């Protein structure tokens, strides 16, 4: 991987933020030794390794150890519910777990058995992190570009975990593009704000490190925007985050006097009003919208260079290595329809082929069907028109309405359920309606055990029966009309 060869020759700091410091030499030694320890315990190239921890030096070492040793990294958020983690374990069958911090350690040890468990907070039968880091180093794995480097898990309408494999070559293509696009260099300090499990994190964790820049992590155990210190922002030059995060930083005044020269927004549609505010607050900073999905990584970008019109920024122009088409229901190219994509960063299929992806063959090349609807503008830019299914983005997280409904299937007393999305495009939320002999507080309690916090319904209502149209289907339009007048809370 280009990332590994680039970090092998650099010096100086890799990460710096107050007490969190990691040098290039420490990253190389830690990655090689941790990979050597895993190899001594029987792991081979291609074996899966789940890892979890806060944004910080140890977690970064864990990721690079997997890439260095040729293992497949499966980064997980410590905030995921236990049932979701167990589903991921069942999907990828990991041979080892790397846990940084007590929270990640507790979560991973409850998720399922692994042959090797390395943690900063060991229990009986587990290896102490510091011990593994002094193991004899092993040579870097010499694998092809087609070898899988990491698995990033998402979920579809069934609510089951789906692993999206990123190849070593695909990651290199993505990080090389961003290194050049942002003109990253040794003087840059790039904020690490996205969880490692999300594709945009490859910009600070790959492109920045390969270009010689320093990574500034969001505070360890960060749970809110307030944990991103003004001191870190005052020294940062590049910020990547979801629009909601950046908007909150503006509201708090944390970007006042900032030295940021570039802001990349990703994970959800970017309101034009936010772009105008950023241009006013930081007129000299580059402002870039990155559109992509987990299955494709990046698809298109749009850089604001003039007046901002409309309600949201365009998705922009396709990345130079991507084929982006818009097709109708029959698969023919159309001025408006579904966005389908192909390229080196697009997955070849979900991990293990246990979940079916939607593909179209165009000009002899397989294109992944994103489920996003779009159109080409007269300026040649891609404009998104929303989803063609039940998916929405909340705080940069993908939320499937079908997954919320599927989680209700195991709730005692729920006969049927339906989830709808309400609110403006930049402030969408989930409303859930259930029918049956059940209290909504019990439904909420069950969903807290199975759904991530960002996917929890903002309000749950119990009805005697769900409204239905003339063909017997649930009338979601009627449910949306019921949901729109009120926001938040739990009702019965």
Number of contiguous helices = 14
Low-confidence stretches: 220-224
Q: How much helicity do the residues have?
A: 25-40%
Range of strand content: 25-35%
- Note the main sheet: 5 strands, parallel
Taking strands numbered 1, 2, ... along the chain, how are they ordered across the largest sheet? Answer: 4-3-5-6-7
Return the CATH topology of the domain at 2-241: Rossmann fold
CATH A-level architecture of the domain at 2-241 = 3-Layer(aba) Sandwich
CATH class of the domain at 2-241, named Alpha Beta
Describe, in plain words, how this protein is organized in 3D.
There is one protein chain. The protein is of the alpha/beta class. Among the domains are: 2-241, 3-Layer(aba) Sandwich (Rossmann fold); 391-483, GMP Synthetase, Chain A, domain 3 (2-Layer Sandwich), CATH 3.30.300. Helices cover 28% and strands 29% of the residues. It has 14 helices and 26 strands. The strands form 8 sheets. A 5-stranded parallel sheet has the order 4-3-5-6-7, sandwiched between helices. The protein has a 5-stranded mixed sheet with strand order 12-13-14-15-16, covered by helices on one side. Helix 1 (2-9) crosses helix 8 (202-210), helix 4 (82-92) crosses helix 5 and helix 7 packs across helix 8. The longest helix is centred in the first third of the chain and has 17 residues, at 24-40. The protein is globular and about 65 Å long. The relative contact order is 0.09.
């Amino acid at each position: 991987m280009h990332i590994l060869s680039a970090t092998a020759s650099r010096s100086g700091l890799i990460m710096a933020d107050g007490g969190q410091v990691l040098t290039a030499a420490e990253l190389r030694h830690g990655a090689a030794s941790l990979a050597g320890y895993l190899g001594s315990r029987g792991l081979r190239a291609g074996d899966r390794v789940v890892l979890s921890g806060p944004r910080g030096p140890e977690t970064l070492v864990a990721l690079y150890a997997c890439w260095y040793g040729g293992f497949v990294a499966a980064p997980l958020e410590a905030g995921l519910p236990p049932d979701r983690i167990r589903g991921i374990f069942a999907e990828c069958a990991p041979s080892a777990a790397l846990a940084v911090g007590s929270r990640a350690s507790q979560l991973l040890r409850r998720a399922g058995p692994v042959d090797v468990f390395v943690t900063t907070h060991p229990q009986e039968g587990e290896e102490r992190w510091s011990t593994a880091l002094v193991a004899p180093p092993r040579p870097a794995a010499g694998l092809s570009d087609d070898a899988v480097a990491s698995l990033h898990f998402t979920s579809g309408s069934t609510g089951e975990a789906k692993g999206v494999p990123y190849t070593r070559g695909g990651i290199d293509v993505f990080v090389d593009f961003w290194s050049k696009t942002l003109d990253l260099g040794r003087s840059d300090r790039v904020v690490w704000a996205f969880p490692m499990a999300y594709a945009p994190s490859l910009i600070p964790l790959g492109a920045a490190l390969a270009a010689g820049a320093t990574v500034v992590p969001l505070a360890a155990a960060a749970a809110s925007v307030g944990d991103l210190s003004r001191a870190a922002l005052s020294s940062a030059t590049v910020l990547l985050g979801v629009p909601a995060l950046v908007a909150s930083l503006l509201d708090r005044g944390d970007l006042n006097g900032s030295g940021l020269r570039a802001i990349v927004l990703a994970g959800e549609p970017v309101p034009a009003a936010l772009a105008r505010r950023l241009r006013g607050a930081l007129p000299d900073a580059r402002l870039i919208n990155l559109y992509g999905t987990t299955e494709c990584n990046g698809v298109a970008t749009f850089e604001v260079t003039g007046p901002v019109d409309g309600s949201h920024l365009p998705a922009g122009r396709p990345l130079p290595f991507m084929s982006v088409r818009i097709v109708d229901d029959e698969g023919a190219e159309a001025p408006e329809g579904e966005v389908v994509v192909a390229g080196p960063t697009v997955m070849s299929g979900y991990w293990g082929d246990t979940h079916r992806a939607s593909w179209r063959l165009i000009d002899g090349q397989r294109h992944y069907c994103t489920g996003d609807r779009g159109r080409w503008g007269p300026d040649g830019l891609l404009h998104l028109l929303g989803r063609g299914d039940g998916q929405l983005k909340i705080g940069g997280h993908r939320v499937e309405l079908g997954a919320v409904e599927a989680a209700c299937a195991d709730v005692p007393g729920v006969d049927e359920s339906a989830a709808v999305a309400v609110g403006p495009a930049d402030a969408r939320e989930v409303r859930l309606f259930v029918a049956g002999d059940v209290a909504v507080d019990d439904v909420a309690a069950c969903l807290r055990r199975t759904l991530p916090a960002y996917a929890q319904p903002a309000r749950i209502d119990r009805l005697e029966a769900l409204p239905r149209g003339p063909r017997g289907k649930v009338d979601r339009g009627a449910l949306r009309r019921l949901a729109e007048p009120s926001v938040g809370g739990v009702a019965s």
